[in-house]
Specification:
It holds the Pfam family Lactamase_B. Keywords: Hydrolase, Metal-binding, Zinc. This protein has a single domain (3-207), classed as Metallo-beta-lactamase, Chain A (4-Layer Sandwich), CATH 3.60.15. With 215 residues, it is α/β, with parallel strands linked by helices. The protein has 6 helices and 14 strands. The chain has a 6-stranded mixed sheet, with helices on one face. A 6-stranded mixed sheet has the order 7-8-9-10-13-14. A two-stranded antiparallel ribbon has the order 11-12.
Length: 215
């Protein structure tokens, strides 16, 4: 059974997820930990739960989701998985991070690519990779249909959607991603968002002011 624990890190109030199962193998998804206190909070949870981190995953590579990449890679000796279309997004963070106050940001290189239809495994569990551009050119979400879980990054929020005014963003593309990749999931699927609280596919299909669909 997949378990999910989230932390809210950095001034963007970004959700970092530790996902694990009964095997105690774990994924770290979108580590936004920048301050030492944030990194300590993450490591203490992992230690207290007796987890073994096996992979580091970025749903996309905007600054608030990658601030802890270098720390996690070094601390746990894991590889970084991103979609190839977001490699340039990741590389650009080094240039603009100081302008956001992150002067100590350490760049990282991707180790493995994730593409549409790939399967990310850990312990006895797995997620399917869905390619969902629009907020970022290489955005992906991770879906486990059996347990009705979606790690959604910044595609779909509770009553909102990801912004599309950043480089590589496109509103029409984002709406297409939501309609074709997320709204085909079971209505009871829980979406664990990159910011704010979680929501469900059914709720957003019925009432999201940007992308609700008629029933």
């Amino acid at each position: 059974m997949i378990q999910i624990h989230n932390f809210v890190f950095n001034p963007f109030y970004e959700n970092t997820y530790v996902v694990y199962d009964e095997s105690k193998e774990a994924l770290i998804i979108d580590p936004g930990c920048y301050e030492d206190t944030e990194r300590q909070e993450l490591t203490e949870f992992i230690e207290n739960e007796g987890l073994k981190v096996t992979k580091l995953i970025n749903t996309h590579c905007h600054v608030d989701h990658v601030l802890g990449n270098a720390f996690v890679k070094k601390k746990y000796g894991v590889e970084l998985y991103v979609h190839p279309e977001d490699e340039a997004t990741l590389r650009s963070v080094e240039v603009y991070a100081p302008a956001y106050g992150f002067s100590d940001y350490t760049k990282t290189e991707p180790d493995q690519w994730m593409n549409e239809g790939d399967v990310v495994t850990f312990g006895t569990s797995s997620f399917e990779v869905f390619f969902t551009p629009g907020h970022a050119p290489g955005h992906v979400v991770l879906v486990n249909k059996e347990q009705k879980i979606c790690i959604g990054g910044d595609v779909l929020f509770d009553g909102s959607i990801g912004r599309t005014d950043l480089p590589g963003g496109d509103f029409d593309t984002l709406i297409q991603s939501i309609n074709e990749k997320l709204f085909v999931l079971d209505d009871e699927t829980v979406v664990y968002c990159g910011h704010g609280g979680s929501t469900t596919i059914g709720k957003e299909k019925a009432s999201n002011p940007f992308c609700a669909v008629k029933k």
